[in-house]
Each structure stands twice: as C-alpha cells, then as structure tokens.
Protein: E3 ubiquitin-protein ligase ARIH2
Amino acid sequence: MSVDMNSQGSDSNEEDYDPNCEEEEEDEDPGDIEDYYDGVANDVEQQGADAFDPEEYQFTCLTYKESESTLNEHMASLAATLKVSHAVAKLVLVSFHWQISEILERHKSNAAQLLVEARVQPTSSKHAMVHSSHHCAVCMQFVRKENLLSLACQHQFCRSCWEQHCTVLVKDGVGVGVSCMAQDCLLRTPEDFVFPLLPSEELKDKYRRYLFRDYVESHYQLQLCPGADCPMVIQVQEPKARRVQCNRCNEVFCFKCRQMYHAPTDCATIRKWLTKCADDSETANYISAHTKDCPKCNICIEKNGGCNHMVFFLCITVGFSLFSADFCWMCLGDWKTHGSEYYECSRYKENPDIVNQSQQAQAREALKKYLFYFERWENHNKSLQLEAQTYQRIQEKIQERVMNNLGTWIDWQYLQNAAKLLAKCRYTLQYTYPYAYYMESGPRKKLFEYQQAQLEAEIENLSWKVERADSYDRGDLENQMHIAEQRRRTLLKDFHDT
Structure:
C-alpha cells in the first residue's frame, strides 16, 4: 500500500499500457528485480512444518560439453546393451525420451519391436515388399549399384538425391527428423548416414547443433536454456513445472514448458490464458491500466506506487470524507472494509442464472468475467514495475546512509530483502488470477479464493510498509515479510501442481 495518487488531468500515460498480458522484455523495464528469489530466505525462515517450501527444486546447470558428455554416456551404454551402432542407439533414446529403464524393459520383451517403434527398423512385411533395382526411385535414373544408398528399409536412392534431400532438410533446421525419401516410409536416418552426404563443414556444424538440440529437447531430464544465444542446459532428476534459473545468463523459466515461471497456474492453463490475452487484447483496450476516477471527487487519478491502498490527498484537502480518503484501487471501495471483505474484492461473483439466459447475455457475462480477471492480472503486473522503482530508491537510500556512516550494507539489507520478497509474493499473486479464471466453481475454488485474498491482503500490507519503511521498525517489517511469505507458501502447497 502506498500514497499512490498524484495527477489531476487526463494525461494518463496511455502509451505505457500494453494490453498484451505477456511479460515485458527485461531491456524495456530496467527496474525489474531479476533476483528477488535470492537472498531473502533467511529473513522469512519458518519453523516446523511451515519450513516446507513448495517451490524447492533441485537442478544443475550444465555446459555444452558437460551435457554432451552425459548424452554420450547414456548412448554408449545402451548401444552396448542393444548391440547396435551409437547412431542407432541415439535414435532409440530420442524415441523413448532417454528413459533407459523403459527401453531395457521393451528390449527384454521384444527386441525387434523396440527398433520398429524407434523407427530404425522396418516391419518385416514392408521389408519383404522391396524389390531390387538399379534405378533411383526419385530421379528415375539408372545408377550403378555402388552409388545406390538405402536405410534398413532397403528403399534405394542415388547418392546425389540423398545429398540434396539431406542438404535441404538440414538447411531448414532439421536434425533427427531427416527420414527416408520413400513415400509412407517413416524410418529415420542415423547421423552416421547423414554426415558423409553433407557437402560442407558449415552444413555439418549446423547439423551437429540441430542434433544436439533435438537430443536435449527429447530428454525428459534436460531443458535448453531459453536465454538468447545461451548454450547452457538445465538438468533435473524429476521433471516438474518448477522455477529454474540459468547460472550463465540468469534467465528464469518453468522447467516443464520453458516459458516464464507461472506458479500456481499449470503450463497448459497459462498457455490458454496468454493466448486469450493476445486474442482479446483489443477488447481489453478500454481498461484504464493507469488512471481511474476518484470515487469521492471524480478527479482523474494515477497510481504512482505498487500498492492498491489509495490515499488521495486532494480529497483530504478539500474536505471530502465519503471514504475517509482511503480506498481500494481495484474496486474503489472504502479501504477500511478490506480487513474483513478483501475476499469479496478479489473474487468474481458468478451469475447462477446465466445458463438460462440468451446467448448475447451469456457472451456479455463471459466478457465481464474475463475482464475482471484480466484487470487484476494487469494491475499486479504494473504494480511489480512500480515496486521495482521503489526497490531502486531503497538501494539508493541504503547507499546514501552507508556513505554518511549511518551503518553498513548489512545493517540496512533487510530493507532490500523486504522489497525483493514483496516482488516475489506479488509475482505469485499475479499468476493466481489465470488459475482462478479457469477453475471450476465449487468448494476447492472457494478455498483457493480465500487463500488468494489472504495473500493479497498481506501483500498490500507489506507494500505499504516497504514504501514507508522509515515509519516502521525492523521487527515490524520483518514480521510482515514472514506473514506474507507464509501465505504464499500455503497457497502454493495446496494448489501448485506437484
């Protein structure tokens, strides 16, 4: 919460509003707190059962050479067991997502069928139908036998056609997807078959990169870092939709879908939500992300802090007392009621009779519901940006105090940690709204909305105190940090997909 109103005209900075709900690029918003998950754990350490962190997730950042070594180790071991070439072993591993235990079980029960399912051997019936010929099936030219090449399927093509086929596909970015040229033949070409057919070292280097990409992306325990031109690979023991961070480029993402981290919303739901936001961005354009009319004096007001607790000083000056000058930015209601009724502010009230009304009425209700959740999603996104500016001011204030011998960085670091934790909690809160939008009505949704409202209330309390840190002692601020983080962990523990 903060003193958040400062404008009286209609100059609402509309050029800053982006109706697309995807996160802004980091270089567009230098105020982002990139490392708000780091360095705050000790300030909110919890005891006993509450010490469980639902976001705790073990992962390792591997270099290109380390990940390549890991892949080659698996490949060599499997090749020896299956008695196949290294190139064929890699294709088998790709087909079964590098789950070696499953491959060995399938090999034990039916070794031939394993290779058929991996698309490195044809079925016996298809193999029997192939007839010997000295003609290339693509260019239809008569070719000497030694210039005809084929995979295990025995579909023969001349070397020149194979070279063109492989060259075109590799130039298009294909790796393990290079397959037989015969119609309806799905056999994949092992890399030791393709490499001699590529005419240049440049093309071979591209092929190596595409193969590595496909090997990693098919591995159930590995993910390529989505950071720009970053070669790092993230390795986990158990793949989950959890937060991981590259130690080279500091990119933060969800391990499972490689998109922005989105707990408690699951990967499929956040994809639906972001697609809907993009599709309906023009419809949502009318939402004023920066300005609203004061509920007392109707003057256009602008938010200048991340908190939703508004105090409009002009109202106080001219004597308006309808809401005692304090109101909620989201619902414009009296802030005093939010201690007990915050649940109502963040919960969408469904129309139970809407199914019996006209299609037009149902469409209006669907739009109303979407805009309710979108506005709150967008509001917390904007609050994160405004609170990043508060974080910058706190850092400057700490630097000033240290320079004036008013303590050390360690003495004042709790202020920085409070701002980091505020961003961490608000980021989670932002992603509760897509979750709630798609959630079916019922007791579980009521529990979620209750916990969501509890978290939102404590975040606003923390935001208010962070922006007025000089008015609160350290113990009070750290206690509020503890409460907010406890609310956040409780919600994730109960609703984050495990």
User: Anything to note?
Assistant: The chain has two domains: 59-123+134-254, 268-496. The two ends are 32 Å apart (CA to CA).
